[in-house]
Amino acid sequence: MKNSKRSQLTSFLFVLPYFVMFVCFLLIPIIYGIYISFHSWDLLSKDRPFVGLQNYIAIFDSGSHLNSVFFNGLFNTFKFVIFSVPLLVVIGLLLALLVTKLPKKIQGFFRTVYFIPYVVSVSVIAIVWLWLLDTNSGLINEYLSVLGLDPIPWLTRIPYAWISIVIATIWWTIGFNMILFINALNEVPEELYESASIDGASSWKKLIHITLPTIRPVMLFVFITSTIASFNVYGQPYLMTRGGPGNQTEVLLMSIVDEAFSQRQLGSASAMAILMALIMIGISVIQFRINRASEEGKFKRKRKKGVGV
Q1: At what angle do helices 266-308 and 28-37 cross, to 10 degrees?
Q2: Cα–Cα distance for residue pair 11/23, rounded to 1 Å
């Protein structure tokens, strides 16, 4: 009994730091944010009356400025997610496949090279890409002028502004997805590839019928985490385009920050943030259910084939 209690106490002490951090830096801020969202909360006023669901209602009221601000930001955020997530998954997988085909002596070098940008802050990434893409003095436009081509307004016109933000994001974060895929590829049993080679399977068939099904859980994880990260995009559009041209690259987090600190309305900004969190949770749940339905469908088809045999 003493050993059991001591073991439980040891386990509790290991979990305690995480639990304290979770409560202090996640649970309490969420609860406090929900509380603020039910109030008219001006940063410069001590009078912060309870307004109930009024902030949420205003977001869905077509005559309210919150409606246009929220849904413009949401629409631009969805555009960024649609543009970036498939590329983050596909390019990350392709890089992983290429690196794993290299001699093991140099694999570590290329892993490091691709992963280094991920550990750099977004402000540094934005400065690098501003230097490359500036319309008047950017390095890329300088090269275009040498070739006799007109400069491209990378950061001041659509669709170039979105292209620039997506390229910078991929260059910055692709190393993380690549590492996850490399670890997954290393877990694929070599016996499966050897058996397929004996049967005369091509590299393409090995990829489709062995590699992708085996690493499917990691692909789902990468897809979900990339979606969540892309939904939280802020630094790239804020630092590179300032939401321009106009407000065409102003994502939802930029709208929330502007409402909170420029307009000084924490109540409505908190309501927008809560709705954003609910949308992200809903998207994640849908992704999990689609994957589960796909897995169940595959299991049923395999079972029927087994019964037929």
Answers
A1: 120
A2: 18
- Tokens coding 167: 């390229």
Give residue 275's domain range: 32-293
* pLDDT surpasses 50 at 309: no
For 165-218, how does the pLDDT look when each residue is reduced to its tens digit (9 = 90+)?
A: 999 999 999 999 999 999 999 999 889 888 888 888 888 999 998 999 899 889
Token pair 């501003």 is found at 130
CA-to-CA separations, 39 to 20, 64, 294, in angstroms, rounded: 28, 17, 43
- Tell me the one-letter amino acid at 147: L
SS3 content of the chain, % helix, strand, coil (to 5): 75, 0, 20
* In a domain? residue 55: yes
Split into its structural domains, the chain has a count of 1
Phi, psi angles (nearest 5°) of residue 50? -75, 130
The string of DSSP letters for 227-267 reads HHHHHT--HHHHHHTTT-STTTT--HHHHHHIIIIIS-BHH
CB 161 within 8 A of CB 72: no
Share of the chain above pLDDT 70, in %: 94
CA distance 95 to 179: 9
Helix (H, G, I), strand (E, B) or coil at 139: helix
CA pair distance 32, 34, nearest whole angstrom: 5
In a domain, 225, yes or no: yes
Residue 291 pLDDT: 76
Rounded to whole angstroms, the Cα distance separating 25 from 6 reads: 29
What CATH number is attached to the domain comprising 64?
1.10.3720.10
Is there a domain that residue 6 lies in?
Answer: no
Confidence of residue 306 (pLDDT cuts 50, 70, 90): low
Q: Which two tokens stand for residue 8?
A: 């439980």
Whether 12 is in a domain gets the answer no
Whole-number Cα distances in Å, 249 to 180, 237, 243: 30, 6, 4
Q: What is the pLDDT of residue 307?
A: 46
pLDDT for 40 equals 94
